[in-house]
Amino acid sequence: MFLGVDLGTSSVKLLLADSEGRIIDQASAEYTISYPKEHWSEQNPEDWWKGFCCALSILSDRQNTGRVTHISFSGQMHGLVLLDNADCIIRPAILWNDGRTADECTYLNENTGRDKLISLTGNIALTGFTGPKILWLRRNEPENFGRIAKLMLPKDYITYRLTGVFATDVSDASGTLFFDVKNRQWSRPMLDILEIRPEQLPKVYESGDIIGNIRNNIASELSLAPNTLVIIGGGDQAMGAIGAGAVGEGAVSINLGTSGVVFINSKKYTLVGDALHSFCNACGSYHLMGVTLSCAGSAKWWAEDVLKTGDYAALFAGLSRMPIDSLIFLPYLMGERSPINDPNAQGMLFGLNAGHNRQTVTKAILEGVCFSLRDCVETAREGGVRIASARVIGGGSHSEDWIQILSDVIGIPLFLINTSEGGGLGAIILCMIASGKFADVASACDALITVTRKFEPDTEKHAAYKEKFRLYKRVYMQNRF
Question: Could you list the active site residues?
């Protein structure tokens, strides 16, 4: 059997698959996020380990987990995990959605320079990335900075506890801002800028590499075989693309999760200015990625916080068939990352009048999110990237009306698939490749993942949305701080 571990921000989810890749059981465990100050977001890495052990114990009560031969991981990216010489946690992990590093990002982008950062790492400094967090720690917690013996990313903490191997992978390392994405190695100039020593960093592997076996004492405690092989896995978006079958040159996935992601595979290293991320993927090549910070998060805010309803199916029903209204929503509830890279961007409903109601505002919310994703797509196209279609994943993919609106806005066919397991399934696929079941990621995805529904854009609506998108951009430009 194969075990896929998806270490998320709010919970860890374990998928157990048989030798053919069929999911036979699953379990999860939740943990909390701490917000000790405004813009801060932290977690205790020990909670991830306890959650992993708890979920595995649930599986072990129902299944013979001693038959698991391979384990792999999908993990939340960018988090700063720090251990001292005794492998004790120095401080809570600073998470991907922590916003305390605005000053550090400004310093890096202006003093080091955007062009230099891009030449060294493929990216500019953003508050979510790991590098600015290290600079913040050096400036604000020098004692903790001086205690660092090991610096790692969230999923790598779990693999270290399991194996004792200090390791990471290229896709996760790409989001640190001290990784040379083009050459798939740590960037020595960036380490010097951040005052990090190479020995404080893990060895970098390709995502499908086996890094070792589970330690005997840990295997006994967790009801796993001591010879169980651990594959390092990758960052959640790279693994989610595998789990969606969006692999190969030009393959695209769009994730309608809490944040929105446009993920574009490329065999060659590609840069599109500083508007999109250029990362290694989990398949041995590269990808461009646009990340919007409040995708399904905007829908959740409107539905649950404002309307006080969790019935999304009823709320979204029929919206794609409604006329296109002039009401515009800017979904910048948490600032915005791609492509405008504006932490001060704010949400807005523009053009409200007495004729608007619950339905028209709800549709404007979904349209605004779709415009933010189109903004990423248009940026990629302007950089010479061809986007002909995409697979849609994430919680928002459960709404066919939302997907139809997205297709009409972007103007491309969109596809649903037969699974919603995302990064966990991606981890299982890497396990199966390591076991010899499949030769490569593409053949595994062809065997396990199929398209179940196609959404075609309406040409008249797409033309109308082209004009509304222009107004959406204008509203942002005229109201930015």
Answer: 236
Q: Which CATH number fits domain 2-237: 3.30.420.40, 3.40.1160.10, 3.30.230.70, 3.10.180.10?
A: 3.30.420.40
Among 234, 286, 298, CA closest to 260: 298
| Strand residue runs (E) in 55-178 | 70-75, 81-83, 93-94, 150-152, 167-169
For the entire predicted model, the pTM comes to 0.92
**Range 247-421+450-481: architecture per CATH:** 2-Layer Sandwich (3.30)
DSSP per residue, 167-223: EEEHHHHTTSSSEETTTTEE-HHHHHHHT--GGGSPEEE-TT-EEEE--HHHHHHHT
Over residues 427-478, the pLDDT tens digits come to: 999 999 999 999 999 999 999 999 999 999 999 999 999 999 999 999 999 9
- Cβ–Cβ contacts within 10 Å for residue 454, how many? 11
**Dihedral sign of CA atoms 422, 234, 431, 184 in order:** positive
Q: Which residues contact 64 (CB under 8 A, 6 or more apart)?
A: none
